[in-house]
Amino acid sequence: MIVNAVFTTKVSPAYDDLPEVRYHFPRTYLNQVEAALGDWIVYYEPRRSSADLQSRGGRQCYFAIARVASIEPDPSREGRFYAHMMDYLEFDRPVPFSEGGHYYESALRKLNGSTNKGAFRRAVRNLLNREFELIVAAGFAHALGNAARERPYPDPPESPQSPMLEASEAEGRFNYDLPETEPRRIVEQLIARPFRDRAFVSAVKTAYDDRCAITGIKIINGGGRSEVQAAHIQPVAADGPDSVRNGIALSGTVHWLFDRGLISIDDDYQILTASQLPDTMHRWFLPEGRMALPQRIDLRPHPAFLKFHREQVFKA
Description:
Layout: E1 4-8, E2 22-26, H1 30-35, E3 40-45, E4 61-73, E5 80-96, E6 98-99, E7 102-103, H2 117-120, E8 124-127, H3 129-139, E9 164-168, E10 172-177, H4 183-187, H5 193-207, E11 229-232, E12 247-250, H6 252-259, E13 263-265, E14 271-273, H7 303-312
Parallel strand pairs: 1-3
Antiparallel strand pairs: 1-8, 2-5, 3-4, 4-5, 6-7, 9-10, 11-12, 13-14
């Protein structure tokens, strides 16, 4: 029987995790991972941020979903395995393991109401379908039009949009009737491109504080809508994942330049420009010639995606 699962991964993983692509785990969890093969899992970030037992800073929240495409042994480490992932998508709102006294995973709560710390220590936990669906509904509340996107004061929350979406800020124009809010219907939409675009845009805007990473411009209208757009670094058409680490917040014109390879970013986050770019365009860029970055290090552009853009898109 195929079941859902929780995969735990730290900000600085002790294992060879790249959640968008792969999950590295010991034989201890092979049965649980095999049970989820072909189905959706939810990623969880624990309190510890690294293998150091004293480390802290993890958000203790569910932050993304993906599907387990295949499992294979680690060719270089006996007793370890890789789960190869597909359809990765980050929540527009990270979901705490407990809200208002409700535990999303029933196994994490003891009969006396306290937290089951022993269950928390398991890096892979199978999950009831209903529990998975409730986590997904909470994580994509804004993308579903059910909740405002909260922002730090003094910026106003971004109001929920109409269920009939008029335009995608990531990939072009479309009309899309959002699913009913019954959780099973939501799960059925997780591979739909319009829904994924909507969630990706929301997560990237939040990470970059609704500010263009190249110009520093931030414009928010009276309804809480921001001018900035979300660009994929490695395009979806080239198998780029819907990950904040594969995203960058850009104003409309800069987004156009980036997608056409007239600007790019190096591994030190310096802005690169093609020879065809008019000199006057440089006046738009941040004075130091370096892109603005998300505060959280783990949300900054990943070198693998930046490398792809420089080698396959950028007109150096």
